[in-house]
């Protein structure tokens, strides 16, 4: 989901081998993989027109359960709602191995994929009106996050999802809040909720030459 590294989708597996909570979904196949774990595409059986992305987290490196990254993402996304921020649909825990699954609204594209398509396949810049729309939506989502004292800290094209066909066609969704931080009230610091994890990040600012051609 939005990590720029997708694989081909497989068919449905035998539903009898799935955890009980997964019986509510028709699993289509794997669509992504990252350092956090795997992402699967599924449809809700009660509403076949609704596609969701199920993100399975790897256990923490210490082997003591759910990683702080996953906890942080859940706590943040349960507090916020905005048209340009990815929606957390549900949280599931597989009791057999205590693995964690997050269900999100499915977005067919991400900005990394769109940039690569125009650069490598059609060999032309993205339409200026499309760029303006994407940037306006991105800034709209960031303004909402910053107004709620949230810094994303991992904003990149692969974490900016773009909805496909449907009511939200072309709508941007900011995703992947594993490195996000709350830096002031009104939301409570995560440390007050038992999450004590420090991550030191050092990002250098750069702009791809592609953007200067738009």
From TrEMBL:
Reactions that this protein is recorded to catalyse: [DNA-directed RNA polymerase] + ATP = phospho-[DNA-directed RNA polymerase] + ADP + H(+); L-seryl-[protein] + ATP = O-phospho-L-seryl-[protein] + ADP + H(+); L-threonyl-[protein] + ATP = O-phospho-L-threonyl-[protein] + ADP + H(+)
Segments forming domain Protein kinase: 25-214
Alphabetical UniProt keywords: ATP-binding, Kinase, Nucleotide-binding, Serine/threonine-protein kinase, Transferase
Listed Pfam families: Pkinase (PF00069)
Keyword NADP attributed: no
InterPro entries reported in the protein's UniProt record: CDK (IPR050108), Kinase-like_dom_sf (IPR011009), Prot_kinase_dom (IPR000719), Protein_kinase_ATP_BS (IPR017441), Ser/Thr_kinase_AS (IPR008271)
Domain of life: Eukaryota
Residues that hold ATP according to the record: 56
A Gene Ontology molecular function term of the record: ATP binding
Family: Belongs to the protein kinase superfamily. CMGC Ser/Thr protein kinase family. CDC2/CDKX subfamily.
Protein name, as recorded: Cyclin-dependent kinase E-1-like
Source organism per UniProt: Nicotiana tabacum (Common tobacco)
Gene name of the record: LOC107808293
């Amino acid at each position: 989901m939005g990590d720029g590294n997708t694989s081909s989708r497989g068919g449905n597996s035998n539903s009898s081998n799935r955890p009980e909570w997964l019986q509510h979904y028709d699993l289509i196949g794997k669509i992504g993989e990252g350092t956090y774990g795997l992402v699967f595409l599924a449809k809700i059986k009660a509403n076949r027109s609704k596609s969701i992305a199920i993100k399975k987290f790897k256990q923490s490196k210490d082997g003591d359960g759910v990683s702080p990254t996953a906890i942080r993402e859940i706590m943040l996304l349960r507090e916020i709602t905005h048209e340009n921020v990815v929606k957390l649909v549900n949280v599931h825990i597989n009791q057999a191995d205590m693995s964690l699954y997050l269900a999100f609204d499915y977005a067919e594209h991400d900005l990394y994929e769109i940039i690569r398509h125009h650069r490598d396949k059609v060999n032309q810049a993205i339409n200026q009106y499309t760029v303006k729309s994407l940037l306006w939506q991105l800034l709209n989502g960031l303004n909402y996050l910053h107004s709620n004292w949230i810094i994303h800290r991992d904003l990149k094209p692969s974490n900016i999802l773009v909805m496909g066909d449907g009511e939200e066609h072309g709508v941007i969704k900011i995703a992947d809040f594993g490195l996000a931080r709350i830096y002031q009230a009104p939301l409570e610091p995560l440390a007050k909720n038992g999450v004590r994890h420090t991550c030191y990040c050092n990002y250098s600012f750069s702009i791809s030459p592609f953007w200067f051609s738009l």
